[in-house]
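Collaborator request log, item 7. Partner lab (contact: R.S.) asked for a structural prediction of Heterokaryon incompatibility domain-containing protein to inform their binding assays.
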Amino acid sequence: MVLCSVCETIPWDNLPPTPTDEILIVSSDHAYLQEFWEWPRDCKGYSHYQSLEALNSSAEDLGCGLCRLIYKQVELCRLKLEELQLGREEDSEFRHAWPLWEFWITKRPDGDGFWVLSYTDNSREGLTVSPFIRDVAADLTQMILFPQVIDVGDNRSSPYVRLWETGGIETGDYIALSYCWGKSPQYTTTKSTLDDRKHQIPISDLPQTHQDAIKLNREFGIRYLWIDSMCICQDDYDDWERESARMLSVYANAYLTINASKGNDSSSGLFYKSSTREYFEFEHTYGGIRGRALACEVPFEEAMQHVYIQLKDDPVSHRGWTLQERVLSRRTLFYSGGQMMFECNHGFRKEDGWAIHRRFPRISSQPQMVSNDQTKDTDLSVSTSELLRSWYQLLATYGGRKLTKPSDKLPAVSGLASIMAERLNDEYVAGHWRSLLITELPWQPGNCKRVPEYRAPSWSWASVDGGIGIRLKGSGYSPLAEVLDVKVNLKGTNPYGEVTEGRLLIQGPMQRLYLSTEGWDPDRPRLGSKGSLVLCTTSTNLETRPQYDFDAFADDRPRLERKFVQSLDGLELYALILLACSHGEDHYIALMIVREPESEEYRRVGILTLTNETLGWKPGEQRKDERPIITLI
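Returned to partner:
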């Protein structure tokens, strides 16, 4: 292939950088469809063809190999545009940003361009990664091993491993595995198999991911391995609760966490054959030396560093338990679909040389923030607001993740919660902090839905699946309500685990509401307020768009909306006003609550904003002794 006249003049040694992610708005789930606050006017990039037709002509008619690579990426973008359906992205400013197909070439932000071989195996991993891991873990102190670990032995060729009971007093290095259980049959330890597991475990009987983890353990020279399905007795609830409460220490103290990032289940394995990347070879002069250069596509997401390192497309990033496993781990080796990746408190790097000095969000903005009974890396200088901001960001990430057992909603972040409780010196109540309840109760429902089985009170974010947002304390609002008492019943002994009941005794201004279905059309696409449900008081319609606790953007929204309306039939609907704007504006944030039949108890069904004008009175001027006291369940 040849280069066209435009590509021949590209100044490869002097290209402007890609705009940093600080000016990027992540407005879309589509990687190629993103918005910038303001693209830098003085360094858009090197001007390439300024129309789709010209680019295509160069690729097809002139046979320019580089234009062909670019056009291939454009086609991927076009396909994403065609996938857009009537919904959130068209019901926003984004719908006005239709592409003009202008092309600018910029410089990749990082990366040394190392070769990535097409197949991974355990010997290659040891050769490539072992020296680096040993370097970053040089000052690691051996920790007390957990009650049960897998002993891989000192004979690398042995076809057996065994479950080893440490008595809780032995020390040593171990590797922890993070993976998706999936729907494939699991190799588990139960009461009936415990003795056999302690005798010997044929490696060939294990799922492929477990087999590959054992190979890596032996390659790294680490004697012990921790895998949840094998090291926790799965049919002993007391053992499961006790050990799941120790997840903080399991991953925080591991020599290394192996993350089976690309695997849908335990049968997927770690090692893989990478797809061959298409590239174009051309003559190039650099530093006065003439040679041949290779051009190939790279992931667009790499320009959005904070987004890319989330590995959103990898199956393991969609599972609930794996969030805290990643957050708590100090060193993680990822086996992703295209190449290996490594993350530690110093940053994130890929096998091809791409590297940044940041890692996946933790429970603070500081790089080394792991604290438990055995490690004390705590930096108490981190402010409460920074801690809470990190916690709320993690909850937003966690909300949409899937759990094999819905009842694991609270246990799956119990390790993170225990760190926060220590840092905040606060009481954890069904996912919330006792001293911050008034601020946290009006959490914002995103694409969420309530689960049929009970696992948390209606006022807790843990009662729904899907994304949620929590307002940071002091962000322009002052409390009008007061929590008088909190009662939460735990299922077991883990204070951060499952709950069977939760009640709040709360006092605050209330307003009776009515749901009007006049003009309501649940089948109408949501572009504006036409056809929407209307909330009213006795005297006026409320000029507000409430957020109900169901997914207003789901494909089956009409069904969900009808179900919601039916669930309120015959029930009394109220606004419980919690917060007032502290900037002098008559603006309030309230819970939508319904009174349970023949009861003095109430449950949450959504949130809304109110004003003095729409209410017809001023909640802030109501005397405290006039404010009702109710129980939220």
